[in-house]
Amino acid sequence: MMRALWSAASGMTAQELNVDTIANNLANVNTVGYKKQRAEFQDLMYDTLREAGSAAAEGVELPTGIQVGLGTRTAATRKLFQQGTFQETGNPLDMVIEGDGFFQVLLPNGTVAFTRAGAFKIDSEGNVVTSDGFPLEPPLVIPPDTTSISVGNDGTVSATTADADQPQEIGQLELARFANPAGLRNLGHSLLGATAASGEAITGSPSMDGLGGISQGVLEMSNVKVVEEMVNMITAQRAYEANSQAIRIADQMLEIANNTRR
Q: If 0-12 CB within 10 Å is exposed, 13-18 middle and 19+ buried, where does residue 173 land?
C-alpha cells in the first residue's frame, strides 16, 4: 500500500482536530476570562531508504540520504494567556487582573481551581462566589448591611455599612500564578486545574511578587480574535482539501498499477 494514503489520512485527522480547536475558540469569543487554544503538530517517524553518509563506493561517501515521512500528528493544544480586552461594567463585584495571576476558587470536593473570570456574585450567606456558587479562596464574606464595596489594586476589600461613615476592611484577595500556566488543565465552567506540568501554585497578594493588580468594575473578556480564527479556519480547510487530493491521486496511481496488463 502506498505510504501517501496513510500520510494524507493522518493530515486530514490532524486538521479535523485543528478545526475543532478553532471552533471552540469561536464559540467562546464572548466568554469572560477565556484563553484561546492553538493546535500544534509534529511529523511522524520516517522510513529510511538510504542513510546519509553511507559508502557508495570505496572512498566515496553519499552526501545525502533518502527518507520518506509517514505523516503528522497533533502534539498539543496549547493555551495562550495573552491579556484579553477589558470591558467596564461598573459592577463592584466584577474584577479584572491586570497582568499575571489567577483567582482561586474552592470546589465542592475541597480542591482549589483557578480562573481569570472575575464576574463574582454574593450568595445568601454573603459569600463572594462564582456564577456556579463556588466560593473564593481565601473566603470573602460581605456584611449583610453593606451599602458599598471597594476593592483596591492590592486586593484589599473594604465595605461601607449602613451604620458606619467610614469603609472598613473586610478581607484580602489572594492570587496564584504558575511556572508553566500552559500546563494547566481545563475543568470547564471557566476553571483551570493544576497539574504536574504546571507546577504548584505560587500564591501572593495582587501587585506583589510578579502578580497583577486588581481593577474593580471591569471584566476581562476572551482573548480570541475572530478575524484571526477565521483565517486559521480557512487555512485548516485548505490543508484538509489538499490532503484529500493526495489520497485521490494515490488511489488513481494504484488504479493505474492494478490495470496494467502485459
A: buried
C-beta atoms surrounding 193 within 10 Å: 14
Look up residue 119 and give its DSSP letter.
B
CA–CA separation, 236 and 215 (whole Å): 38
Estimate the crossing angle of helix 3-27 against helix 226-258, to 10 degrees.
160
Identity (one letter) of the amino acid at 17?
L
**Rounded CA separation 190/35 (Å):** 9
Residues 72 and 93 in one domain: no
Q: Which residues contact 103 (CB under 8 A, 6 or more apart)?
A: 95, 97, 114, 115, 116, 117, 118, 136, 173, 175
User: Domain residues for 56?
Assistant: 3-81+224-258
pLDDT tens digit string along 5-43? 999 999 999 999 999 999 999 999 999 999 999 999 999
Cross-strand partners of 66: 50
pTM: 0.88
- CB contact at 8 A, 62 and 54: yes
- The tally of domains found in the chain comes to 2
Q: Which helix (H) or strand (E) holds 75?
A: strand 72-79
Domain identity same for 123 and 189: yes
Residue 86 has which C-alpha cell? 477589558
Q: Are residues 54 and 131 in the same domain?
A: no
Please calculate the CA angle 145-92-172 and round it to the nearest 5 degrees: 80
Q: What is the DSSP letter of 224?
A: -
121/207 same-domain check? yes
